[in-house]
Each structure stands twice: as structure tokens, then as C-alpha cells.
Amino acid sequence: MALELRQQLRLTQQLVMTPQLQQAIKLLQLSRLELLDVINDEMVENPVLEEDSEEETSSDGAVSEPVAAPPAESDTLKPVTVEETAREDIDWSNYLDEYNTSGPVYYEPEERETPEYENFFARQESLVDHLMWQLLLSLPNKTEERIGNAIIGNLNRDGYLQATVGEIAALAEADTSQVEKFLKKMQAFDPLGVCARDLKECLLIQADYLGLQDSLVVHIIQNHFKHLENKNYKAISQASGVSYEDVLAAVEIITRMEPKPGRKFSDEEPQYISPDIFVYKMANEFVIVLNEDGMPKLHVSSFYRETLSKGEGVSSHTRDYIQNKLRSAVWLIRSIHQRQRTIYRVVESIVNYQGDFLEKGIGHLKPMVLRDVAEDIGMHESTVSRVTTNKYVHTPQGTFELKFFFNSSINRLDGDVIASASVKERIRQIVQSEDPAKPYSDRKMVEILKSSNINVARRTVAKYREMLRVLPSNKRKRIQGGQSACRSQ
């Protein structure tokens, strides 16, 4: 078979992602704060982009400034007189005796540099700063200071020591006996229990501070820590030979101790949510308002447009540069407007579908998927998915991420369906209303949900309970007269 070279004409279709289309897709999935950063960066790089000023501009682009009217000729100017009178209730004799002294007199200059208080900012004290302050107050010698710095430098965010005594001794160039001795001293620092190597040692440090050295509390921590974790108090009672009530009293003291001493020095800053859109109830309808607060209103610079219109006197290189920047600016403005319109249409579709939720609460949330909104507004599901990513809406029921409204459906006993988010809320309400001494098991919650016309399996309840960060029933049980032992993880 002979080989030959042949030309063929073939017609195919393929999707080409232009840079402009990639930019539009990127802007579509950005949050509001991320969009502001992109706009600010683009305004720095693109000289054609400008932000509309708040002042009114005339048709030729010049800012019109109000001109003050001249005073009328008939008005006469009255002379200004300043009356200097002294108060009669001042004891001038004491004043003169106090300030007319024979000693040197110091004058403070009228103009002096004052600190700019707006440049000051508050910073929360960290765990390292707090411990270093106590370390220096203890007046350590050079070796102890090196040991203390090594110990503080190897603490995690909860205040636990992450290095061994040998490693600390190698870092501080000291003996292990010196490290052990000074570590014992630093474990008495505030917060109590800091510098412990594990949870058991942390609790023992706090028990020692409370004066419970030979008590049942220390005995339980040292010998029955596994039963304590599993809340198997009967096993502790049988193994220790003490009454069940005494064990509960000791456990009550242990549960009031702090398992994470460094928690109050956490440097995590709260992340505040700025909604992209607001939904208000006005009269008998819901009104959708885009959040334009702080969003710059962009336009193309008139200076560069006039430069291009001149034609002559502009080099070809300059003209190409301005045209490229002009196309980039126009495309960015169009992409931002398209983004805002798409967000509005998506939220409008959600509001029309979830009217009962906005009126009555999460128990009336309807199951909805991306396809429902995509078919309603005539867009692709991927577009709706990008729009609802990292976007938040403020509603009469609170502030929610747009992804919150898309959830699966759970069958009811009568054949109807209910949103999975509503089932989670119902499980949370059941846990809150249960008897702390006799918490509901997952199987019992299945029966309660069936009485509410909700058909779910036990493993579904367990999955939703874990998503709500609720402990199992055997660990939610509270001891009598004590604090909650069912803390969400």
C-alpha cells in the first residue's frame, strides 16, 4: 500500500475560550469583596478606566462648581467688636500667688506635634506575648530564659507543648533536669494548664491548683481516663469502689475545667459577610435590591477617547495601546453589568420559588436544584452554579449563601417531599427540646420524624446529626445538676 499526501476540507465546531470570555466567567464566580479587588487592580493597570465622581458633571466633562453670589450693594457691613470681660468668680489673689514664683518658668510651644491617633490600632494579646510577659516577670537567669523561650516557641494554639524535654534541652543547651524543673514552674503560669504535654496533664495541673491532690478527681483522671472520655461512669464507680453519686460529683468538677488553655488567646479574626443582594418585604411583595455600596461606577476616560478621535498627531504605537486598553475597559464594564443582571435574575427566580420560606421560615423551604433555576431564567446550570458560589443574600429570615437554597428532597409519608435543610432544622429542634438526662437516640428521632410525616432512615438521621455537629446520645447525656456534657464538637 503506497503512502500519499492528500488535502481534505472538514467543517467542525469547537468552543473557543477567548480572554474576554474567560474574564467574564471569572467575574461571575467572584464574591463581592473579590470583585472590588479586581476592579481596583484593573483601574491601576488600565489608564482608560475612570470612576465616576459624586459631583455633577457638565456635558463636556467639566465639573460644575457652585459660584457664590456677590453681596447686594444695599447691604452694609457692620463692624465686629470683641468684648473682653473677666469673670468675677475667679480668685485672682490665689492665682497670682501660685504662678508668680521666683523659680524658672517654662513655656510650652503653642504648636507641637501631636500623635496621629488614627494610625493607632488595637491588637489582641497573643498567648506568646502573655507567656513572655510572665516569663520576664519571673526574673530568670540566662539558661532559664533560653529554656522558657524554647518552651513558648513550641506551644500550639491550644497551649500544649509539642516538643519533648530532650528536644527543649537541645535547643536551650541545658540539662533535661533543668528543663523539667523550669517546665513545672511555667505550668503554673496563666492560663492555668498551659505548657501541658497532653490533656491528662492539663487536667491534673488544674486539679492541683484547686487543691484536689488526693481526691477522687485526680484518681479518675490518672486511672480511668478512657472511661471518662466515653462517659462510662458506672465502670468508674465499680472499679474505684465508690458510689455512683460521688463519681458524678467528681466528673462535674472535671467537666468545668478548661481542656484548651490557649483558647481565649486565639488570634482568629471574625469574617464578616457582606451580602451581594438584599430581599425586603414591602407591602405584599418582595423587593430585590443589589448591594452597590462601595462599588465603583466605571466609565471610559473622555481624554483618551478624544485622543483617538484626533487621528493626526498620534503615533500608531500609541493608538494601538489606547485601543487595546479601551477594548479591555469596555469589556470589563460590560462583564460587571452582565454579572449584576445575572445575579438579580437568579435571586428573582429563587424568591419566586421560595416565597413560603421567606414568609414562614426554614421549615417551609422547598427542595430545589440548579436545573430548576437554569430552566426558569434560560441559562446553563454551570452559569447558575458560578453565580451562586460565594454569594450571600440578606432575607427577612436572615443572611444565607445562595447555595443554601439548593438541596435535595426527602419523601414524606403522604407522598409529598420536603427539603433536606428543613429536616436538619427539625433534628436540631428535637435535640434542643430533649431531656438532658435522657437524650433521644437516632432510632427514636426517626420515630419522632415519622410522627411529623417525614420518612427518613436511621443512617440519614445520623448523617444529618453529624453535619449539625451534634454528639451521639450516649455522649449528649448530662449528669444530674451539672453542666452540659453534650457539647457540639
Could you tell me the strand content as a percent range? 5-15%
**How confident is the prediction overall: mean pLDDT?**
82
Q: How many β-strand stretches?
A: 8
Helical residue percent? 40-55%
* Cα distance spanning the termini: 73 Å
Report the CATH architecture of the domain at 127-265: Orthogonal Bundle
Annotation keywords:
single chain, 21 helices, Arc Repressor Mutant, subunit A, alpha+beta, extended, 4-stranded mixed β-sheet, 46% helix, 8 strands, two-stranded antiparallel ribbon, disordered C terminus, 489 residues
Topology:
Layout: H1 19-28, H2 32-45, E1 49-51, H3 92-99, H4 127-137, H5 142-153, H6 165-172, H7 176-186, H8 199-209, H9 216-223, H10 225-229, H11 233-240, H12 244-255, E2 277-282, E3 285-290, E4 298-300, H13 302-310, H14 316-353, H15 355-360, H16 370-377, H17 381-387, E5 392-395, E6 398-401, E7 409-411, E8 417-419, H18 420-433, H19 442-451, H20 458-467, H21 473-476
Parallel strand pairs: 2-5
Antiparallel strand pairs: 1-4, 2-3, 5-6, 7-8
Helix pairs in contact: 1-14, 4-5, 5-6, 5-7, 6-7, 8-9, 11-12, 14-16, 16-17, 19-20
How is this structure best summarized?
By secondary structure, this protein is α+β, with helices and mostly antiparallel strands. The protein has helices spanning 19-28, 32-45, 92-99, 127-137, 142-153, 165-172, 176-186, 199-209, 216-223, 225-229, 233-240, 244-255, 302-310, 316-353, 355-360, 370-377, 381-387, 420-433, 442-451, 458-467, 473-476; strands spanning 49-51, 277-282, 285-290, 298-300, 392-395, 398-401, 409-411, 417-419.
